[in-house]
Amino acid sequence: EKAVNLKKDLAEMQEWMTQAEEEYLEKDFEYKSPEELENAVEEMKRAKEDVLQKEVRVKILKDNIKMLAAKVPSSGQDLATELNVVLENYQLLCNRIRGKCHTLEEVWSCWIELLQYLDLETAWLNNLEERVQMTENLPEKLDAVNDALESLESVLRHPADNRTQIRELGQTLIDGGILDDIISEKLEAFNARYEELSHLAVSRQIVLEQQLQTMRETDHMLQVLQENLAELDRQLTSYLTDRVDAFQMPQEAQ
User: Fold this and answer.
1) Are the CB atoms for 145 and 212 separated by under 8 Å?
2) Are the beta carbons of 58 and 12 closer than 8 angstroms?
3) Rounded to an integer, what distance in angstroms lies between the CA atom of residue 169 and that of residue 121?
4) Alpha carbon distance 57, 24 (integer Å)
5) Is residue 216 situated within a structural domain?
6) What is the CATH number of the domain that holds 163?
7) pLDDT tens-digit profile of 98-154?
């Protein structure tokens, strides 16, 4: 009777493993939204816990069959053979579910990381847009134009590392058919805004550089003119002090 019950327990265990494999490993999952992906991750975590909890039952079966084999070798031998098959299948099931759980957790982590990089770069784009707007309607002063140019250039020196991460993470998920529509939409919107603002910022940078160069040249010309006028004023004052007749002066002084 004990052998019959153990045989029944082994059959039930094998049946449970077959159902678990069908439910957790053979279903075709489609992750078209973050909610679906997150639910799949949580479901696979529960599956891993469920399978691992059966380890106690498997150990009890193993111990009972060993005890029976010691008492009744003939009955125990057949059960031991069936037990080995169950143990092998159980270990395989555990490994596969662990693997799938790990993969889904990695995918979810990849999605969260992508969102974090997008948030960082979006904040940078907002800052860049603000700096570009600050370059409009500047007062015609050298310092104001120079400060605006330096401020814009400091933002444009932003490294491209985050954008590289966004591209690689997004492509990895899209290649796996995971959240591909959502990610493609997000990346398209981000890239379009990045290109637009980058071109606008570079154009404003060029305009400011030209404006700054013109203002510096004008300031230099005014400085030279002021120096020339000061020298002429000094000469004229000297002539007047010495009561020199106008016709005795050089032609330019006349």
Assistant:
1) yes
2) no
3) 14
4) 20
5) no
6) 1.20.58.60
7) 999 999 999 999 999 999 999 999 999 999 999 999 998 888 889 999 999 999 999
